[in-house]
Design brief:
about 270 residues; Metal Binding Protein, Guanine Nucleotide Exchange Factor, Chain A; 2 helices; elongated; mainly beta; 2 domains; 8-stranded antiparallel β-sheet; 7-stranded antiparallel β-sheet
Length: about 270
Amino acid sequence: MTTLRTAASVRSTPEGLLWEPSGRWVRGRKGGITVVDSRHPVLVWEPGVPVPLYAFPREEVREELLRPAKNPPAGAHTGSRIFYDLEVDGEPLENAAWTFPAADLAGHIAFEWSERTGRGLDHWYEEEEEIFVHPRDPHKRVDALASSRHVVVEIGGTVVADTSRPVLLFETGLPTRYYIPREDVRLDLLVPTAHGSGCPYKGRAEYWSWGGEAEVPANVVWSYPDPLPAVSAVKGFLAFYNEAVDIVVDGERLERPTTPFSRTLSTRPTA
């Protein structure tokens, strides 16, 4: 997935990083401890990584919680050579923070996000709104629009959903997602799973797997029971991975797209 960035404020470094200042007030916490409290964060895009991360001026980071890394990873984060372990309430977190070698970013420290990498800070806020997985990309747009298109979803030849009142979600770099009212979905053919995910643009999702005999990836259906305000129109609606099911819109059968999710969808069932 490639996001086009044309703003004059985006700058590049010889190392291949893109970066720009952000006007957002950003806080990062580990448990109940605020580790970062920044009004001058910088967004950084690493080469080949479609989503940004934040780097922060040292003076807005609680550096007393950082220790030189005992086992710094080789070749991680665009050639970074200085890594830190984070220690909060006596609990060490290896390689939770680092500095970039780029001269433009000297004096800044970046942190891992636990929802993205499994380690790092576990609660992040932009202004007073909690965000998940990674920072929002200011060059990416997400729109949820009510529609009257006729949408049919099939799995293994079985019609699983049929509606003329979907909400279409348009997200930069991804195929259109068709969110369908629960009343128009065959929930009896789906099995709730324990899987969950977070999205900085939409919120936290719950999932279902296909309950029939057709070979379909696990967690192929999702819903946002309490979405973020910008996409409130999808609340409680169900969406299917276009990459793994057949979707017909106004009589036209859509081709299955290839996306970053194509690689991560699993055919193993999830309870």
